[in-house]
Each structure stands twice: as C-alpha cells, then as structure tokens.
C-alpha cells in the first residue's frame, strides 16, 4: 500500500510567478501548477488569493489520495526563516513583515517552512543537483539579482543573523554603479540580468553598432537579458563584450569567496546561468588568475543541473530537513 504521507508541496514564490510542485521522496515532481503572484493587486488581496489557491491545491491533491504532509516555500528578499516571515522584498513591494508560512499552515492545515529563495536552491542542488558530492560549496543564483547559499561541512550555513550569506552584495567595484541595496559596485550590479540589460541599453543609447536593434525589431520588443544573450550567441561583439565583463567580475568574486572559505565547488544557477556557454571561459580565466593561494584545479565550477525546477525541489527538501530537526 502506498503511503500518502511522504509527499511535499514545494513552492517557488517569485515577484511575477509562483511555481508549485508535489514532490516525492526521490525528487520527482508528480504534479506541477504555476500561477501569477499578482502583487499589483496590493498586499492584502494578493496574499488572500495566494493562500486560497494553495488551500485549493491541497484539497485537490487530498481528494486524489496525495495529500502533502509538508509545505516548503522559497521566497525572495529578506526572510526570517525561523519564523517564516517575509521581512521585506524588493520584488514584492509593501510585503513587509508578512507571516506567509503561518498563513499557509493555518489555511492548509499542514506544517509549512519558508526560507530565502537562494538557500532553497542550494538545498536542491545538494540533494539531487550539481552539488551532491560537495561538502563545502557556494551556490549563486544569477537572475534579476544575485542570490547566494552556502554549505559548509555538508550542512547549510546561515551565519549569525540567520539567513545565510549575501555574496551578491560584496563590493567588487568601489566606485561602481549604485545597487538596489544602497551600496555601490556590488557583485549584483555586475553580474545580474537587470544590470546587464542596463548596460545593453546604454550601448543602444550611444548607438554602438550591435545586432540588438534588429533583434528588438526596432523597439517593438522589450530589451531583456534573453535578447542580449541571443545577440551574443549570434556573434554580436558588443553583447559578447557585456557577457565577457560579467564573466570576469564573477571570476573575481568567486576567487574572493574561495580564498575566504577554501570551497571545493561553486554552482551557478538562475536564468542567467543559461548564458554560461558565453561567459564561462572569461570567468574561468579570471578566476584562475585571481586565485593565487589555492589550487584552482581542485575547485569545480558547475552550472545548476536542476534549472527551473530547483526552486520547487529545493523548497521541498528544505522543509523535509527542517521537519527532521
Ligand atoms: Zn548591493
């Protein structure tokens, strides 16, 4: 007889979209359902809607004999992981001090754990992704921003303030661009999709010769990191130079991290990691040059093997590990 009590609902909460999946103990996503965050409705309405949808999902799974026994949520921003509260989030304006885990636990009647999105991805990569054989590694999520999660001695490491490292906000360029966090020249201003797009736009404004104009169909399409990647893939020198810079800055940042913690591995995830086919050679060259006090041959730099599923799978794993504590 199959047990109904071993499935976990993994939730990947983003500023635009919410991805959910019913995850089995082997890491298979049995059923998946995505819906819009609808943050533009305002905090109260959007939250009410989200909790209602989750409750309905649980009800449907229960009717089919697959009631989840746990819920895990990965969320963007500053998260109080112990209390399951979104403190604040640049992607979810006005979502301050939102006790999302508690709201969902009460409505769905299922224990619910929440963590920072990048921590969740790191759990997923360690469980069944690119980090299974790593004991000491960092995972960077390259998306709109740059998130990070860290494992030391085979265990997630959250640090003194409890949410894990923020490698996206280490200073790489002292006089660099302002960052959303209030600092300037953070890694995030040099290696995120949003800042890549800003640089591409500057190039367009300066009329630098590039394929971008043509790919944007002369401004009828929005400029996104995906379009910049497509232009680079087609050999556009300007867009290749943007990815080359991004790779070099990442190489500098990663050498700093490895010098600090003597990690054995680095995993790059997030949407922008798809462009690693272009930026990885620049990253590796810079990394090897900067890593003077450790043997770079003993350090593996890998791309996430879970891709878009990492948030759902990682949220499920995070909930499972925290329940067992
Ligand atoms: Zn910053």
Care to describe what's here?
It contains ten helices and twelve strands. It has two domains: 130 residues, 2-Layer Sandwich (Nucleotidyltransferase, domain 5), CATH 3.30.420.40; 173 residues, Nucleotidyltransferase, domain 5, CATH 3.30.420.40. The model has no long low-confidence stretch (mean pLDDT 94). It is 39% helix and 19% strand. It is α/β, with parallel strands linked by helices and 325 residues long. The strands form three sheets. The protein has a five-stranded mixed beta sheet, sandwiched between helices. Strands 10-9-8-11-12 form a five-stranded mixed beta sheet, covered by helices on one side. The chain has a two-stranded antiparallel ribbon with strand order 5-6. It is globular. Strand 11, helix 9 and strand 12 form a beta-alpha-beta unit.
Q: Whole-number average pLDDT?
A: 94
The largest sheet, given as strand count, sense and whether it forms a barrel, is: 5 strands, mixed
Helix and strand pattern: EEEHEEEHEHEEEHHHHHEHEH
Number of helices: 10
Structural class: alpha/beta
**Total number of distinct structural domains:** 2
**Helix amount, in percent?**
25-40%
CATH architecture annotation name of the largest domain: 2-Layer Sandwich
Bound molecules: zinc ion
CATH level 4 superfamily of the largest domain: ATPase, nucleotide binding domain
């Amino acid at each position: 007889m199959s047990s109904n009590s071993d499935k976990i609902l993994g939730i990947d909460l983003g500023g635009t979209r919410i991805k959910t999946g019913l995850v089995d103990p082997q890491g298979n996503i049995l059923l998946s359902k995505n819906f819009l965050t609808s943050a533009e409705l305002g905090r109260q309405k959007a939250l009410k809607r989200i909790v209602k949808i989750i409750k309905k999902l649980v009800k449907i799974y229960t009717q089919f004999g697959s009631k989840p026994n746990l819920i895990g949520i990965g969320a963007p921003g500053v998260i109080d992981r112990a209390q399951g509260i979104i403190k604040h989030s640049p992607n979810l304006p006005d979502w301050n001090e939102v006790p999302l885990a508690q709201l969902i636990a009460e409505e769905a009647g299922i224990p619910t754990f929440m963590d920072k999105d990048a921590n969740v991805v790191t759990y997923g990569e360690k469980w069944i992704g690119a980090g299974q054989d790593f004991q000491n590694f960092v995972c960077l999520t390259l998306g709109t921003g740059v998130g990070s999660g860290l494992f030391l001695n085979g265990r997630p490491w959250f640090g003194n303030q409890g949410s894990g490292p923020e490698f996206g906000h280490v200073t790489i360029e002292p006089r660099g661009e302002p960052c959303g966090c209030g600092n300037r020249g953070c890694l995030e201003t040099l290696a995120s999709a949003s800042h890549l797009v800003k640089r591409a736009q500057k190039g367009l404004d300066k009329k630098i010769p590039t394929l971008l104009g043509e790919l944007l169909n002369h401004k009828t399409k929005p400029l996104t990191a995906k379009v910049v990647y497509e232009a680079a893939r087609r050999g556009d020198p300007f867009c290749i130079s943007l990815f080359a810079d991004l790779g070099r800055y990442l190489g500098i940042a990663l050498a700093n991290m490895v010098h600090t913690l003597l990690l054995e591995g680095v995993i790059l995830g997030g949407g922008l990691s798809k462009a690693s086919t272009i930026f990885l050679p620049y990253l590796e060259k810079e990394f090897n040059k900067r890593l003077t006090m450790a043997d770079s041959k003993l350090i593996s730099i890998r791309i996430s093997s879970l891709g878009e599923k990492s948030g759902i799978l990682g949220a499920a794993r995070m909930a499972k590990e925290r329940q067992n504590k």
